[in-house]
């Protein structure tokens, strides 16, 4: 979907995060992004206009985040209900740029997470790292930095950084955002067109202190759910976004996850004003994925289509989304994108509706509650239903064989998502956000493969997130 023009606030420029409730390019912010969004593409473009001065343009901002996540797995073979509660502190220093033909700057970030609850075998919710006994650790922390250069209408970054594009993006739906280590370049010199190329060789996952090699969300396990040797040494990509005022937004990307796949993406959307207060926005996403190199996840021949219509009126929106996966493997993506920036119409809080041969539809409603004199409350509700064919999977496939189910010819499942957010509008607590989320996922006969302990079962998931942004300078 298309992102409308977003006003980037000064604290967001410094922190690199945005708590503004906006429609995300891939998903809705209220239902998917948990307040915590890098706002990366908008922030980077805005940095080109920051006046010269390494110190004069610097900022130090932070975010206090309290996060509770509990999942009731009704019948999972693992017989474990993950539950974690964590208090986090995030700090971000962003320098200005030197007054030289090529401006030089530095971004530094760090965080600390403290466990408040998660013992008694209830860990595994993704907020905290796990020890050798799969118990959540008492705390964790990390820090990273990236050198940045600007000039000739371009921005070059090298080091630990955030990414957001259709092929690789950092998950933000847990305590802290995921980062990637590598080199990226964006060019803004062509009218209405942004060019984007990059290479990364490792990532810091959302509940991890150190770096990991690149893996995928669905191809990194076996029937026992144990991580296998499915790592890639690097990811490279090139792409562009064309967006003109009152015209369509067209996005094209191509990339390669070494020894795993080549992937291509095309997306288009266009907003139409039906009246001064009513808009209609159709959108379409297409992914083409093929195995590459040593094919560490086996043969991949996957085409995935998703699209829909969004009707907006008076602070409300109604979206109808449809999705089709054409292939004998699921639509997969780099871990841990976790749906925060996933460019699939029907990817939801719990399930992606991306199984082999799956067809799905979604109905979603979002609104502020201004019509009941509560403009600082936002509400979102969605229902998604799909039918997959798990018999299409090759049980001998090294990456996805665990998904095979002989009884899964017509594997049905559905998900219901509800979210409510309150933002304090003024006073000392201005900027404080509280978000409540509930997802219910139910499956039919044959949906979960025998021996698959990775989830995809009947479950209810609850999240409570309290965010408070602050600025030091």
From TrEMBL:
It holds the Pfam family OprD. Keywords: Signal, Transport. The keyword Transport applies. GO terms for molecular function: porin activity. The keyword Signal applies. It comes from the Bacteria. GO terms for cellular component: membrane. Belongs to the outer membrane porin (Opr) (TC 1.B.25) family. This is Porin. It comes from Pseudomonas chlororaphis. The lineage of its organism: Bacteria, Pseudomonadati, Pseudomonadota, Gammaproteobacteria, Pseudomonadales.
